[in-house]
């Protein structure tokens, strides 16, 4: 099958079709109350059923978020990120503490992923990014995909997930489709990707997949982002496959990619930022992008002919990021830099404007190759 998969390219011609005057923009975000007063939170996702719908657990929804202490420089959070478990019941959030025990993860920090509760309502399987190496002397940008399973327990609405299995590396870059070279560092537009695993079960045949943000191995461009994919085989192992989408020469980071099925069509979404488009142009706003296809392996067509679903508003181009579209078309993200029209001039200004908490939820509408904010 892998030999017959042809990647769809997201091209400069696609992005050039973005019309700034008519493009859809998210509404302005006002300062939001923090879910946890002492922590920054970002990149959050619900515990889902295998069909992608959030699981109802103890009268609410379990969420996993990246978390860090409130540091003077909000960008420094990426170097100390830990996954944290939260329970949302109605409008109320309850902090359940770190998701994984200290020392369990093989990285120096934990980055985004997805989590599935199995049909037994007791087992949660977590797919996530282990960034760096445990006990490394200098922070590195190595990224590896791991999976682990824990036991869900609910007693009088007290929710715990414990007895996590030893994390196992589930998908490894092959240096044919996806590069394992991560020494680009963390400068703007230079960090390479092998992260953000998102589980997807194809309703057409029940096959299970992981999508992930990747960087192309056979590229001559520094801007070589891709949406990677792997399929679970009958023995439980994951087979790496060619990318669904590549942005070679256009964009360096197609982050947190995920698929939903709506009215019989497949919709693939990702987040990206203006600063990671190739400087030769064209560029799009920081926003939610996507494509549509008749089947998982395409060919894919850019939504709205450009790929842009919606961007941050021109008056607040950095206000939110890391959008996740759920099967009911609800869109979740986190509050990034609120109220800035230009990049923060220094660390103090960035800290003063960084939200570090879930953003107000949005909703999109889908009709064939068109997508817009409800």
From TrEMBL:
SUPFAM superfamilies: Arabinanase/levansucrase/invertase. Pfam families: Glyco_hydro_68 (PF02435). CDD domains: GH68. GO terms for biological process: carbohydrate utilization. InterPro entries: Glyco_hydro_68, Glyco_hydro_beta-prop_sf. The record marks 196 as: Transition state stabilizer. Substrate binds at residues 42, 112, 195-196. Belongs to the glycosyl hydrolase 68 family. This is Levansucrase. It comes from Sphingomonas panacis.
């Amino acid at each position: 099958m892998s030999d017959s998969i042809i990647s769809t390219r997201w091209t400069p011609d696609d992005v050039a079709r973005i019309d700034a005057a008519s493009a859809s923009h998210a509404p302005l975000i006002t300062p939001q109350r923090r879910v946890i007063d002492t922590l920054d939170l970002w990149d959050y996702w619900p515990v889902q059923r295998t069909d992608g719908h959030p699981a109802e657990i103890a009268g609410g929804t379990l969420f996993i978020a990246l978390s860090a202490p409130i540091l003077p420089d909000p960008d420094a959070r990426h170097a100390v990120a830990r996954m944290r478990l939260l329970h949302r019941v109605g409008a109320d959030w309850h902090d359940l503490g770190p998701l994984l025990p200290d020392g369990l993860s093989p990285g120096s920090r934990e980055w985004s992923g997805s989590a599935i509760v199995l049909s037994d309502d007791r087992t949660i399987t977590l797919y996530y990014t282990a960034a760096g190496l445990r006990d490394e002397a200098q922070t590195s940008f190595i990224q590896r995909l791991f999976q682990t399973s824990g036991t869900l327990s609910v007693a009088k609405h007290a929710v715990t997930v414990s007895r996590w299995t030893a994390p196992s590396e589930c998908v490894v870059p092959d240096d044919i489709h996806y590069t394992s070279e991560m020494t680009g560092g963390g400068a703007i537009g230079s960090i390479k990707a092998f992260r953000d695993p998102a589980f997807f079960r194809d309703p057409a045949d029940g096959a299970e997949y992981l999508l992930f943000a990747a960087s192309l191995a056979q590229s001559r461009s520094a801007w070589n982002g891709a949406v990677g994919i792997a399929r679970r085989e009958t023995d439980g192992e994951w087979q790496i496959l060619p990318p669904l989408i590549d942005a070679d020469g256009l964009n360096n980071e197609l982050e947190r990619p995920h698929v939903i099925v709506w009215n019989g069509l497949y919709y693939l979404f990702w987040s990206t930022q203006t600063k990671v488009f190739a400087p030769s142009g064209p560029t799009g706003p920081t926003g939610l992008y996507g494509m549509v296809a008749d089947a998982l392996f395409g060919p894919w067509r850019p939504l709205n002919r450009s790929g842009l679903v919606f961007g941050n508003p021109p008056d607040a181009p950095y206000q939110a990021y890391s959008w996740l579209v759920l099967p009911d078309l609800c869109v979740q993200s986190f509050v990034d830099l609120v109220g800035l029209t230009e990049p923060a001039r220094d660390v103090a200004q960035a800290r003063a404007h960084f939200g570090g908490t879930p953003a107000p939820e949005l909703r999109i509408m889908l009709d064939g190759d068109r997508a817009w904010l409800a």
